[in-house]
Amino acid sequence: MISKRESATRAEIIWCLKNVASNMSAASTQGIVDVFKAMFGTLPTDFSLSPTKLSYIISEALGPYCRNMFVQDLRENYFSLQYDETTNNKDLKELQICLRFYSEKEKKIVVKHLETFFLGNAKAETLKEYIINSLNNAGLHLKKLLMLGSDGPNVNIKVSRLVNEEIKALNRKPLIDIGTCSIHLVHNAFLKGLQAFGSHASEFIISIYYFFDGWPLRNEDFSKIQENHSLPNHKFLKHISTRWLTIGPAIDRILEQYEALEEYFLKFIPKYRSSLINTKHYKDVAAYLKVKNFKTELEFVSSVAKYFTTYTGFFQTTEPLIHIMYDKLRSLTIKLLTKILKPNVLKDFRGIVQYPDKIFTTENLLPMDSIIVCEDSIGKLPKNEKIIMLKNVQKFYIASSKYILTKSPLRLKELKYFSFLNPFMIKEVPSYYVTRICDKLPCNINKESVVEEFTMFVNTENLDSFETSPVDTFWSSMDENRYPELSKVVKMCLSLVHGSADVERGFSLSGRILSEDRTSMSLRTLNHKLYIIDALNMVDNRPELFHITPELMNMTRLASNSYKRYLEEKQLEVKRLELENKKIIEEKEREKEQLKLFENKQKRIEELENELKTVNKEKTVCQLTVDRLLDKTNKAIKKVLKSTECGSDVKIAGVLLHSVIEQRKDEKQKIKQTDKLQSNILKRKSTVISGLVDKKKKSSE
Description:
Blueprint: H1 4-21, H2 32-40, H3 51-74, E1 79-87, E2 93-103, E3 108-119, H4 124-137, E4 145-149, H5 154-168, H6 182-197, H7 200-212, H8 216-228, H9 247-256, H10 258-272, H11 280-289, H12 294-314, H13 325-338, H14 343-346, H15 349-354, H16 375-378, H17 383-407, H18 413-417, H19 432-440, H20 447-460, H21 471-476, H22 484-494, H23 501-513, H24 523-537, H25 550-557, H26 559-642, H27 647-700
Parallel strand pairs: 1-4
Antiparallel strand pairs: 1-2, 2-3
Helix pairs in contact: 3-24, 3-26, 4-5, 6-12, 6-17, 7-11, 8-10, 9-12, 10-11, 19-20, 20-22, 26-27
């Protein structure tokens, strides 16, 4: 029998789950009790909700409980970590970190939010620290990390190196390397092709979109022309230049409306809306529409984009696809190469992968007239324009395929070995595929046992029943007691990352929660809502199906006290930081005073040094004067000795001798003064240096 108190707590939990599931605001709980009473008549007497109560139930009960659910599910299993960063609605760098692992509870590969951070910068060292901290915060060990999944910029290569250094310190094998996100790789390959082919199509699409965007009269005029041509009243799609593969659907829409565009821009506007002729977007669009082969260019970009979007669309799923990644990437590359290379060259695909810079030579390339592209429209072009078009097409295929060959993991043999997981190929792959993979895995595995179990599984189990269900569903049916070592290997392999779409979906979800009107939301609340959403996904986002345990009920009842403790701890932390800041400010003030004192001492030393220079100059003058007087005295004495009449000369010699004696006294005085100044300067310098050394020692302590 459920008590009224338990009934009220359950109702509060379910409604808080609903609030998160539907991304409702905290303000939606205001007056909710009265609304429910009006709707249902009676409610549990203890039922109550408010924005504050909703907040602490989420942050003190539901969030921690849901996070603990996935941490317990992960337990001792190995996992891959995916991360990415972007700028959010707070205008801060947001770092999203999630884990990919085999769920013992759900019996499939899952991706769970681990933690989100707000950053000031995204340097490799900073990212590495946050990655390590996120694992420590969840009580997870770095030694269980299989690989890092990222989108490929150089900073992420350094992050991987830094994390590997941490792993090396644990006496463990390095992270598994199967390259960076293949979705970004293929996306960038298309970009390289477009850069070689020309960016006219992209510029044209952007100009058309912004010509119509926000202009009702222009849209109204164009809709009438659409109607005249029996064309659907479709709007033009936005293409973002940094997301090159959005160009495909945007071009398809333009090709659908091409006849209407020609009439509207080249006939209707000059005749009826001549004021638009001087606008930039009109000039750009009209100029492209007048180019004879421009439609052919659009048709080519539209057709070739489908090769790339087929791949990127296929790999934007959480379902494990590591087992077919090599074949799919190889298939795409061969499709591109087939367009421009002679058939005999394509026979040695391994050689192509190893030496991509050597294959695009004149003798290996197909003749221009053998390149097949948009046959219906290209045949109508003049010969010289046709040659230019075919050369640009050739440039596209060379640039895009070369990028894939040089940047993709096709060079890594390990990627091919994962095909042992493919149910459709499992009977064909050699057993050494399994052992080679075992060599890369971070734990000690008995390879002989794995091969024995794999061979037995292939030869004794009914594998023909597998259809198109996810590969983790296929392997989850394997008896772990019968195949313990193989099961361990399979779970680790399926946990590897084939693309970064999962973490990008996390950004979309985070963006909906942390919308522009909720930028005051704390990072703590954001993280807890993301944990709850992950848990709700297990019950198809239906709060009423969420399993409410006694532990969760107890956490909810204690949430208020827990929230108060959190606020008290936060206040203590604020006070601690204020005290630290006060100490820092006081220390800076002391440093300022010491600096001022040092500057005064330095100034006095400079004054003494200048005084010393003056005295030295005076001493030098004095010495020169003495030397001159001595010289004159000597000459006078010599003259006295030679002269018989020496009365006046003796007087002169006596005066000179007296002057020399006086000057010598002055010289001695200057020497004493110089010595005193030098001693004073040395003493002051010694005091200043000692002060600096003592300060350095204190700061190091």
